């Protein structure tokens, strides 16, 4: 594996799941893998799980781990050929070149602006690092995708499925803020790329994800119809792809115990952080069918599997 930016970089998802599950059951035997190697994590946006689970994965494999909050660094320029006489003090060409001398793997979190769809969907920040870094680049959630989360979600489903090909429902849910499409885009492309589940996506009219991510999934605009017979329910809010960044106040899409009663005693999933009683009711989140903490635990092991794969390329 040369980089880890999307499902396309994962040539064998089941092998990554296997390695993640191995690291999970043997957490103290793998410090030789990253010995004398350095992982740098750059955060342009807040994080709890990604930051700490990736650091934990790195140290578990023996890496030296350095994390930098980019709010404390120079403001970077990403455009080529510009006259840098405004507030951006350093070009990504130099920054990526410098960082590549300090580390063996460079990981980056960069959310979308949610104003200019073309700019966001070009995923400029992560691709600029990929272009100018000379070491493998890992997405810690970019403008369009969150592959470490999606791999952790595959692991969680693999651990809990009772049928060979479970029905997985990704449902839009309400939220007071305008949120990215990265988590649902990525979840959809990993579920269909893995091809071990039947994926149904439920969202209000006007909230369809970009078609490039939903190919292979059934898209429904009736949440109850989608939930019927589900084995896993994955809730997430996202703002609209068209018109880009639009939001809606559809509080009737909150996932509660009545909705879960339509399912095949489904497990509930969410990437976190989650707004209680806005996205999902306390009753669902606090029930034994909720897998949100297991998903967060698997973030460490998904990151470990990816870090290993990037070293043996
Ligand atoms: N990394 C996981 C999700 C991050 C982000 N959620 C958020 O920003 C929620 C923040 C809030 O609830 O205010 C998203 O949806 O992509
Ligand atoms: N799920 C997830 O990526 O959480 P953080 O935003 O806290 O990293």
Report on this model:
Homotrimer. Residues 216-309 form the Aspartate/ornithine carbamoyltransferase Asp/Orn-binding domain. GO terms for molecular function: amino acid binding; ornithine carbamoyltransferase activity. This is N-succinylornithine carbamoyltransferase. The chain contains 12 helices and 11 strands. It is α/β, with parallel strands linked by helices. It folds into 2 domains: 3-145 and 299-311, Aspartate/ornithine carbamoyltransferase (Rossmann fold), CATH 3.40.50; 147-296, Aspartate/ornithine carbamoyltransferase (Rossmann fold). The protein has a 5-stranded parallel β-sheet with strand order 9-8-7-10-11. Strand 8, helix 8 and strand 9 (218-220) form a beta-alpha-beta unit. The model has no long low-confidence stretch (mean pLDDT 98). The structure holds N~2~-(3-carboxypropanoyl)-L-ornithine (SUO) and phosphoric acid mono(formamide)ester (CP). N~2~-(3-carboxypropanoyl)-L-ornithine (SUO) is lined by residues 141, 177, 179-180, 182-183, 271, 273, 275.
Query: Strand arrangement, largest sheet?
Result: 9-8-7-10-11
Mean pLDDT: 98
H-E string: HEHEEEHEHHEHEHEHEHEHEHH
Count the domains.
2
Summarize the amount of helix as a percent range: 25-40%
Please tell me the CATH architecture of the largest domain by its name: 3-Layer(aba) Sandwich
Instruction: Just give the CATH class of the largest domain.
Output: Alpha Beta
CATH-assigned homologous superfamily of the largest domain: Aspartate/ornithine carbamoyltransferase
Radius of gyration: 19 Å
Q: Count the helices. How many?
A: 12
Bound molecules: N~2~-(3-carboxypropanoyl)-L-ornithine, phosphoric acid mono(formamide)ester
Quaternary status: single chain
- Return residue spans where pLDDT drops below 50 for at least 5 consecutive residues: none
The CATH topology of the largest domain is: Rossmann fold
**Spatial gap, N to C terminus:** 5 Å
Largest sheet: 5 strands, parallel
Shape estimate: globular
């Amino acid at each position: 594996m040369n980089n880890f930016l999307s499902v396309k970089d994962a040539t064998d998802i089941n092998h990554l799941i296997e390695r993640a599950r191995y690291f999970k059951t043997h957490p103290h035997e793998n410090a030789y893998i990253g010995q004398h190697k350095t992982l740098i994590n750059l955060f342009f946006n807040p994080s709890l799980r990604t930051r700490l689970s990736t650091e934990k994965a790195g140290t578990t494999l023996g890496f030296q781990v350095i994390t930098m909050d980019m709010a404390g660094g120079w403001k970077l320029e990403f455009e080529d050929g510009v006259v840098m006489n405004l507030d951006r003090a350093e070009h990504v060409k130099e920054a990526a070149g410098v960082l590549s001398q300090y580390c063996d793997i460079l990981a980056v979190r960069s959310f979308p602006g949610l104003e200019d769809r073309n700019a966001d969907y070009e995923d400029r920040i992560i691709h600029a690092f990929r272009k100018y870094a000379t070491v493998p680049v890992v997405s810690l959630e970019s403008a369009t995708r969150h592959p470490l989360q999606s791999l952790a979600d595959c692991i969680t489903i693999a651990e809990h499925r009772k049928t060979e090909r479970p029905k997985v429902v990704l449902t839009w849910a309400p939220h007071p803020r305008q949120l990215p499409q990265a988590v649902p885009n990525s979840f959809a492309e990993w579920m269909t790329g893995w091809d071990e589940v039947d994926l149904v996506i439920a969202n209000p009219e006007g909230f369809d994800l970009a078609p490039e991510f939903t190919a292979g999934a059934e898209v429904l605009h009736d949440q109850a119809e989608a939930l019927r017979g589900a084995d896993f329910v994955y809730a997430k809010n996202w703002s609209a792809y068209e018109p880009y960044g639009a939001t809606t106040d559809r509080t009737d899409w909150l996932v509660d115990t009545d909705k879960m009663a339509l399912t095949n005693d489904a497990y509930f999933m969410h990437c976190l952080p989650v707004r209680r009683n806005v996205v999902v009711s306390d009753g669902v989140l606090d029930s034994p069918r909720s897998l949100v903490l297991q998903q967060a635990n698997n973030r460490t092991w998904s990151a470990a599997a990816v870090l290993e794969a990037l070293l043996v390329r």
